[in-house]
Design a protein that fits this description.
Elements lengths: L1 H28 L2 H14 L4 H14 L4 H38 L7 H20 L1 H5 L3 H54 L10 H16 L1
Length: 222
């Protein structure tokens, strides 16, 4: 247990370094006006991480002590459902973005809308990857997640350094989206490399839709 905890600590460590690095690059490379708009867009878009957080809270304990095949089935379904729900909400928020920003922050922050919409795409990608990597936690390979995070951090820092000076807000958003796409690709590729299984199919099956429908019915009855 101690060994697992120490290996898991790398996830928090790299995550903290990633956040501080991103913040330092944004502050150092953006104009004050762009920085204010970016901060608003980031804070509002992060509200959609609730789906990823909720799924992970349930998925990891439920996957513990199960076989690899069972873990993969649970993860695949969780990825499909959480990504679908996040994408639906992101689309709605994307359309209502101008209204939300006007109500929450005023008309002077409407300039944040373009990067806000880009960050919503990044949230959907982040949700997919965040749930996908839980297989490595459940199978006792937390160091794989830390390694993926570290690799992604290198690309993200490079992309921010290249894109923010020229494109400011949009550059920051694109850097996050591109690095999130790369992290998703690395994660999918890690399944056959580290777990010796085929990459997960992220499309919901008929059984998944039935499960989702039954879940909604149970929630409605309550």
């Amino acid at each position: 247990m101690t060994n697992y905890g120490l290996r898991s600590y790398g996830i928090d460590l790299v995550g903290g370094i990633s956040g501080q690095t991103s913040q330092a690059l944004v502050v150092g490379l953006m104009s004050p006006t762009a920085l204010g708009l970016y901060t608003v867009a980031m804070s509002v878009s992060r509200m959609l991480t609730m789906f990823e957080d909720s799924v992970i809270t349930v998925l990891l304990p439920k996957s513990a002590a199960r076989s690899l095949d069972e873990i993969i089935v649970l993860t695949r379904r969780s990825v499909g459902i959480s990504t679908l729900l996040t994408a639906i909400c992101a689309t709605i928020v994307m359309v209502l973005g101008p209204v939300l920003l006007r109500l929450l922050y005023g008309t002077e922050f409407l300039g944040a809308i373009p990067v806000f919409r880009i960050l919503l795409v990044e949230i959907v990608l982040q949700t997919t990857t965040g749930v996908l990597v839980q297989t490595f936690m459940a199978t006792g390979k937390p160091e794989a997640i830390a390694s993926l995070q570290l690799l992604t951090l290198c690309f993200k820092a490079l992309l921010m350094f290249l894109l923010i000076p020229q494109y400011q807000l949009i550059g920051a958003g694109l850097a996050l989206v591109i690095s999130s796409i790369l992290r998703l690709i690395f994660t999918i590729a890690s399944y056959p490399l580290l777990l010796k299984v085929n990459p997960l199919k992220l499309i919901l099956t008929r059984e998944d839709w039935l499960f989702l429908l039954q879940t909604f019915k149970l929630i409605k009855r309550r």
